[in-house]
Amino acid sequence: MKKLVGSLKYRNLRYTQNHPLRIPRVSLLIEFLKAMGLIEEQEIIQSREATEEELLLYHTEDYLRALEESDRCMCVKDRYREKYNIGTYENPVSPAMWRGSLLATGSSVQAVEVFLEGGVAFNPAGGMHHAYPSRANGFCFINDPAVSIEFLKKKGFKKILYIDLDAHHCDAIQESYYQDDSVFVLSLHQSPEYAFPFKSGFAHEIGRGRGKGYNMNVPLPKGIKDGEYLYALEESLKIVKEIFSPDVYILQLGTDSLKEDYLSKFELSNAGFLKAFDMVRDMLGEGIYLGGGGYHPIALARAWALIWCRISGREIPSKINSEARQVLLSVNFEEFDEDIDRTYMYDYLLDRSDGEPPRGEVKRLIERLKALFLL
Ligand SMILES: [Zn+2]
Question: Angle at the Cα of 322 (from 350 to 303), degrees rounded to 5?
Fold first, then answer.
């Protein structure tokens, strides 16, 4: 049972104009996959909204009521803005805030349920890793990965590995499980020295109390390409496997690590992104797959289409057919840097990968992590 949890409803649950997340994402992916002939209707599980009980596994009731109330009027009280960080430029009031988050979070629970029934599922709307129990943060309102982790705990899982490949550090996830030895958090991301969330995601943050040694950050320099990213991922996974044998893992697949993404300084090709996915699966078996950040809609649709091909066991077609090209061309999105030729994105599905060896800086980081975790 290989399933994509999704819905075309997201089309009408967008962020406000000028927000990086105003773009079509899940609906575009579904339309693109259909046009490419890469998905059958019966492979799609229609997303459902999260229940109150599921939301309360992680979030506070007062925060949920503030989101719900703000959704009703599409407005925000000053005290809510201050207390919950909603109604800001970063986390605006829009249909995405409450309705979209409910759907994305319900979908993550659905993906977990498929996994518990012995199947495999991908929820591309998930992976909103910045939301705190009672505070919006980094475009995220409801933390569906954390709800999923809590859901797994409730189902009796004692050792849960959370792997985050988004270009940004999963600050809220780290904080929530920092003193917890039943959840190992591994995150590869742009160093907070130069990227959001700036305050956390450093290598020395390894957990506290019982959770000490169960939080690994791999903060990487600007301009990371496939070869050194895969080196860092393989080495960090090897360390994790030496100290933690998970019952289950959740993989967050933010596509803002791709070279086309204008909100990050990473330079991965989608072939490198796919190899990262393959590497995790080869080393750990099947997991629960969630989306994440990603602000270039075309890059995102191509990369997640590749992930779906792998999950569903399909051959990867080399060319993008004319119907699918029309789907991509119909997206209302202006290239941030018009000088870069991106026409390849509309012709081919899979990029060429580069095998550049790791820089000394990245090798030294891995040595440091080995010393922190294994000695
Ligand atoms: Zn991100």
Answer: 25
Query: Could you tell me the end-to-end alpha-carbon distance of the chain, in angstroms, rounded to an integer?
Result: 42
Find the 25 Cα to ligand 1 centroid distance in Å: 14
Q: d(Cα 271, Cα 290) in Å, to the nearest integer?
A: 18
| Cα 64 to ligand 1 centre (Å) | 23
**Ligand 1 center from residue 320 Cα (angstroms):** 26
Which pTM was predicted? 0.97
DSSP secondary structure code for residue 62 in this structure: H
Q: pLDDT tens, 277-296?
A: 999 999 999 999 999 999 99
Q: What pLDDT does residue 330 have?
A: 95
Contact of 145 with 290, CB cutoff 8 Å: yes
Question: What is the dihedral sign for C-alpha 126, 128, 129, 132?
Answer: negative
- Return the H-helix or E-strand segment holding 114: helix 101-116
The alpha carbon of 322 and the centre of ligand 1 are apart by a number of angstroms equal to 31
Amino acid at 144: D
For residue range 66-86, what is the model confidence (pLDDT) as tens digits? Answer: 999 999 999 999 999 999 999
Confirm if 275 and 353 have CB atoms less than 8 A apart. yes
Q: Which domains, ranges and CATH numbers included, belong to the chain? A: 2-374 (3.40.800.20)
CA 222 to centroid of ligand 1, rounded, Å: 14
Contacts of the segment 104-107: beta carbons below 8 A, 24+ positions apart: 104/47, 104/128, 104/142, 104/144, 105/49, 105/50, 105/54, 105/55, 105/142, 105/144, 105/147, 106/47, 106/48, 106/49, 106/50, 106/51, 106/54, 107/5, 107/6, 107/7, 107/47, 107/48, 107/144
- Reference 112, options 168, 45, 65, 64; nearest CA is 45
Q: Is the pLDDT of residue 334 over 90?
A: no
Tell me 5's DSSP state.
E
Whole-number Å distance, alpha carbon 241 to ligand 1 midpoint, is 25
Residue 139 CA to ligand 1 center (angstroms) comes to 9
Kindly give the distance from the C-alpha atom of residue 200 to the centroid of ligand 1, in angstroms, as a whole number.
Answer: 14
Cis peptide before 357 (omega within 30 of 0): no
Q: Yes or no: say if 49 and 30 are a contact pair by the CB < 8 Å rule.
A: no
